Automatic annotation (TrEMBL), chain A:
Lineage, broadest ranks: unclassified sequences, metagenomes, ecological metagenomes
Keyword Membrane tagged: yes
Native source organism of the sequence: freshwater metagenome
GO MF annotation, one: ABC-type transporter activity
Identification of the protein by name: Unannotated protein
Keywords (A to Z) from UniProt: Membrane, Transmembrane, Transmembrane helix
From TrEMBL, chain B:
Taxonomic source organism: freshwater metagenome
InterPro entries from the UniProt entry: AAA+_ATPase (IPR003593), ABC_transporter-like_ATP-bd (IPR003439), ABC_transporter-like_CS (IPR017871), ABC_transporter_ATP-binding (IPR050763), P-loop_NTPase (IPR027417)
Pfam families reported for this sequence: ABC_tran (PF00005)
Protein name, entry field: Unannotated protein
Family: Belongs to the ABC transporter superfamily.
Coiled coil: none
Gene Ontology cellular component terms for the protein in this record: plasma membrane
PROSITE patterns: ABC_TRANSPORTER_1, ABC_TRANSPORTER_2
Keywords, ordered alphabetically: ATP-binding, Cell membrane, Membrane, Nucleotide-binding, Translocase, Transport
Single Gene Ontology MF annotation: ATP binding
Residue ranges occupied by any ABC transporter domain in the UniProt entry: 8-238
Protein localization: Cell membrane
Length: 269, 310
């Protein structure tokens, strides 16, 4: 007859690796839409770079902040792409796991804990962001928009940036029972303004003073500025660079804390 | 230390959501190998009880031991030994039939090769071998249920928890499912099921607790409960919804006991045919009549004054 001690012993493997099994599941699921991920990951940068970086660059022949316009805009476009994937992944896929497909409940019926579900979810997305950011990075290198060898740092920076927007949104999505249009509102009133006023296409010094706060609270601005430091050595005071990192880490960590709490509440109530 | 023969031991188990008491101070035990049913109407607290046993919902008060452990503190270890069939299918729509099983087996730490082998065995058991590469969405309701049951068996569980396993299925699909569950019961798997279908509870349960409004109303085997709370036979007569109550007054002395429902009169007795003859003799010819054996539905009606499916 099995004793509790035997059972605890058998449960050690999922106790250690539960998060990885969740990642594995999500990678399996991704096979169903891998062609979309690959096509958009290759197509997006090329379209953006041609339209904005090359086309718009002709209107700004003097460049910005001492570098050609393409060099200026490329790291920010990469950040904007990865952060928008992060925002998307923090909304419907999370609510769906609780409400429509209920996959999170199915996983929680096994030894896997809510915290491991969150961990596996985030690790899977880090893999996805790395893939998409890696292809984008290859494209901007091919377009000659990365003068420095530290440019590859845009990949980890973009993952941190994506987490900083994903985790707070996922915390919210895990705590609502239905989407009565909130996601559309978030998209229009939070995500979209953030992309317009985050110094992606022009420095935030060009934004009226009364609107500049949008950039300061926007993870995209902080991620883009860090990306510029990595790709062409944007010169700024060290305190500002530290601020970028602190803001992104704070968003991601606080969001991650609330995301985990929302998952635990939803799965154990 | 050996685990006792009781796989579930609940004592004054209570679950409260705000002001609402979903489960109110219930106590019961389930021995290993038993097929145990929680019978009650929707909202009786069956699913909440099941979630606490499944170690996915923390209790508000009382004690609960599952496989000798406390679900509040040892949820993952307990869940590693359970198979769970939830009320609503939560199969992974992004994966194909066989992949659903393999991916699920991985959550228990099964190596991929072992999970694949087990998945093939269970697809055969669930009679789904011809659908292994199918997506989940096009499967019929019965097939999805069988796949969910196959999934719940991936870890060779000590106990299988089934929450309303056949709700929404057509009669044929229900019978196929019952057959599969009966086979598991024969193999000695402990089954715990909730249902609001009396025939399902009778078919699959060795012992039942009847639950209503979060409380246990009665406990025993289906036969014991029927013997204790109902008669051998039931005569159902219909006179039309406007006349049932009027006729009931005139035949109140027939049989042992009577229940007047909006659409029919139930007369509890040892000999339904004899009572039907008596009623007819008095000139009260029913529109339709039926003599049947007593069921758990009658037990529930007796205990609560309400029918199970309202």
């Amino acid at each position: 007859m099995t004793t509790p001690a035997d059972i605890r012993q058998k449960a050690l493997n999922p106790k250690r690796w539960g998060w990885w099994y969740v990642t594995e599941l999500r990678l399996r699921e991704m096979r169903g839409y891998v062609s979309y991920v690959v096509t958009s990951s290759i197509g997006n940068p090329i379209i953006y770079l041609l339209a904005l970086g090359v086309g718009l660059a002709n209107l700004v022949p003097q460049g910005i902040e001492g570098v050609p316009y393409l060099v200026y805009v490329a790291p920010a476009m990469l950040m904007s792409t990865i952060l928008s994937v992060g925002a998307e992944e923090g909304m419907y896929p999370v609510l769906s796991g609780f409400k429509w497909h209920k996959v999170f409940f199915a996983i929680h019926a096994t030894p896997v804990t809510p915290g491991q579900i969150v961990g596996g979810f985030l690790v899977h997305l880090a893999i996805r962001f790395t893939f998409t950011a890696g292809l984008f990075f290859a494209a901007i290198v091919a377009f000659g928009a990365v003068p420095l060898s530290t440019g590859w740092l845009v990949i980890p920076i973009s993952i941190l940036g994506a987490y900083s927007i994903l985790t707070p949104l996922a915390a919210y999505s895990a705590s609502i029972d239905d989407d009565g249009g909130q996601f559309a509102l978030i998209q229009r009133l939070v995500v979209m303004p953030m992309f317009l006023f985050s110094g992606t296409f022009f420095p935030i010094s060009q934004i009226p003073d009364w609107l500049e706060w949008v950039a300061w609270v926007s993870p995209l601005w902080h991620a883009s500025e860090l990306g510029r430091i990595a790709t062409y050595g944007l010169s700024e005071p060290i305190w500002l660079t530290v601020t970028h990192v602190v803001v992104l880490v704070t968003y991601a960590a606080v969001g991650g804390y609330f995301m985990r709490r929302a998952f635990v509440n939803r799965l154990t109530r | 230390m050996l685990v006792s023969n009781q796989v579930i031991r609940a004592e004054n188990l209570t679950k409260v959501y705000g002001d609402f008491i979903a489960v109110n101070n219930i106590s019961f035990e389930v021995p290993r190998g038993e097929s145990f049913g929680l019978l009650g109407p929707n909202g009786a607290g069956k699913s909440t009880t099941m979630k606490m046993i499944a170690a996915v919902s923390t209790r508000s008060s009382g004690n609960l031991e599952v496989l000798g452990m406390d679900p509040n503190t040892e949820g993952p270890a307990i869940r590693s030994q359970l198979g769970v069939v939830p009320q609503e299918d939560n199969l992974d729509q992004e994966l194909r039939v066989r992949e659903n099983l393999i991916a699920y087996g991985r959550f228990f730490g099964m190596p991929r090769a072992e999970a694949s082998k087990r998945a093939d065995e269970l697809l055969e058991f669930a009679q789904l071998t011809d659908r292994v590469k199918s997506k989940v969405e096009p499967l019929s309701g019965g097939m999805k249920r069988r796949l969910t049951i196959a999934r719940s068996l991936m870890n060779d569980p000590q106990m299988l928890l089934l929450d309303e396993p056949t709700t929404g299925l057509d009669p044929q699909a229900r019978h196929i499912l019952w057959d599969r569950l009966f086979r598991l019961k024969e193999r000695g798997t402990t089954l715990v099921l909730t249902t609001h279908y009396m025939d399902e509870a009778e078919q699959l349960s060795d012992r039942i607790i009847v639950v209503d409004k979060g409380e246990i109303m009665a406990e025993g085997s289906p036969a014991q409960l029927i013997r204790q709370y109902s008669s051998k036979e039931v005569l159902e007569v219909r006179y039309g919804s406007d006349n049932n109550a009027k006729v009931a007054k005139k035949i109140a002395d027939v049989g042992e006991r009577m229940e007047i429902l909006p659409d029919r009169i139930l007369i509890y007795s040892d000999n339904g045919e004899r009572d039907l003859a008596e009623i007819t003799k008095r000139g009260h010819h029913p529109t339709t009549s039926l003599v049947r054996r007593s069921s758990l539905e009658d037990v529930f009606l007796r205990l609560t004054g309400r029918t199970l499916v309202e």
